[in-house]
Amino acid sequence: MYYGGGVSNEEDEKITVYEYASRGSLDKYLSDDSLTWVMRLKICIDIAIGLEFLHGTVSSPEVVIHRDISSSNILLFDDWKAKITGFGLSLVCPTSQDLEYVIDNVSGTIGYRDPLYSQEGFLTKESDIFSLGAVLFDILCGKLSSVKLDDDYLYLPFLAKKHYHFKKLDELVFEGIKEQIEPQSFVTFAKIAYQCIHHRRERRPTANEVVIQLKKSLEFQEDYEKWEPELPKDYKEIIQKSKCPEMYSTIKKEDLYNIFSKGILLQQDKVLLSFDGDRERNEMVSATMFSYIGSCPHELKSLPESRLFSLPDI
């Protein structure tokens, strides 16, 4: 993937050239209702993949520590693909060099800057991860981390951490996307974003781990948007009447659709069956509820797991 441009170094004049991004920088779209949750997730994934590339692997000859990841340093293109820019403060280190930390002068955009970096002057790859986490919260909350918020003048990452701790993060979610977000997508996204801004560097994930979790969040969301309309309108109420409602809370909507197509067992030994297509339902009841009076000379026995048969709606 391409994240920068070329560098001209003629006659002691250094010029960095970047690929033209028709939509400009991400910070202009944070509070834009037209930027859906799915689009925002894909942008987040692009950013995390870019950072993964910069941080390199064991076999990479060099590692790039960006030092200034922020929403204003993310460029967007016609297809909403996102690429990292703003490499003016970046440090390039050989992979062979000990990267536990690099002593460096404090730099970067306030609000996105790792507080440990500011306190200790130690620069690490985990400092970039903190900045990535701040951008993730920008995208979720529709606000910039560089702007002080609330009466305590907290920056967004610290306010988000506080709300996450008290299970109130949903209060900060941008209103323009709040109703779109599938619960499991939100939980997965919020957890990895919170881990990125953890106060202990060793508890922060790698860029690769962030990519994995963001893709899971997107998978939950796309699954929800495709399959939610196919489920019975009252499927949540039906689930609550089932024998084990909690078992359905974390599965994908496609799997839930397949379960409803086959039948879901209720507490009263009934099954509600949802058909493909028009979502019409037949009620199915256990054969153990029926007996034959005077029509069979043999003794009838109740079977613990009898077959179920369908009765048409009346």
Concise account of the structure shown:
By secondary structure, the chain is of the alpha+beta class. The chain is 34% helix and 15% strand. The strands form five sheets. The chain has a four-stranded antiparallel β-sheet. The protein has a three-stranded antiparallel β-sheet with strand order 3-5-6. A two-stranded antiparallel ribbon has the order 1-2.
Largest sheet composition: 4 strands, antiparallel
Strand order in the sheet with the most strands? 10-11-12-13
Q: How many domains is the backbone divided into? A: 2
What's the alpha carbon Rg, rounded to whole Å? 27 Å
Rounded to the nearest angstrom, the distance between the terminal CA atoms is: 60 Å
Order of helices and strands: EEEHEEEEEHEHHHHHHHEEEE
> What is the fold named in CATH at topology level of the largest domain?
Transferase(Phosphotransferase), domain 1
Give the fraction of residues assigned to helices: 25-40%
CATH domain class of the largest domain: Mainly Alpha
**Which band does the percent of strand residues land in?**
5-15%
CATH-defined superfamily of the largest domain: Transferase(Phosphotransferase) domain 1
Structural class: alpha+beta
Q: What are the segments in which pLDDT stays under 50 over at least 5 consecutive residues?
A: 287-314
Mean pLDDT over the full residue set: 81
**Which assembly state applies to the chains in this document?**
single chain
Give the overall silhouette.
elongated
Number of helices: 9
CATH architecture of the largest domain: Orthogonal Bundle
Number of strands: 13
InterPro entries: ANXUR1/2-like, Kinase-like_dom_sf, Prot_kinase_dom, Ser-Thr/Tyr_kinase_cat_dom, Tyr_kinase_AS
Pfam families: PK_Tyr_Ser-Thr
Domain Protein kinase: 1-218
Protein name: Kinase-like domain, phloem protein 2-like protein
